[in-house]
Amino acid sequence: MAMLTRKENSVSTTPSEQDQTRTRLTRSAATPAPVSSAAAAPEVRNDPISRFRRWIENIIAEIRKVTWPTPTEARNLTIVVIGISVTVGAILGLVDVVLSGITAWLTGA
User: Fold this and answer.
1) Full domain range(s) for residue 98
2) How many domains is the chain built from?
């Protein structure tokens, strides 16, 4: 005998499928209904000043979540950035000198 489930609107034909369906229906019936957050939430004002205040509060909340580096980490990372910048600058300068020499040789200048 086929059983029509309430949750899935499908037909279960084997006893094991019927048992699985009963288990799913029992679990879903046992879970409490979620509480509406709209009823518990205070009224949100949408005027420009309130929006600006919420925006600033959100910025402050995000800044508090940031993991700030220690002075030692900041110094070490600054040294790394300066070192990489000098290295890239030297490589680009060398490429510029080589390409300028090739261009001068090709144009006969």
Assistant:
1) 70-109
2) 1
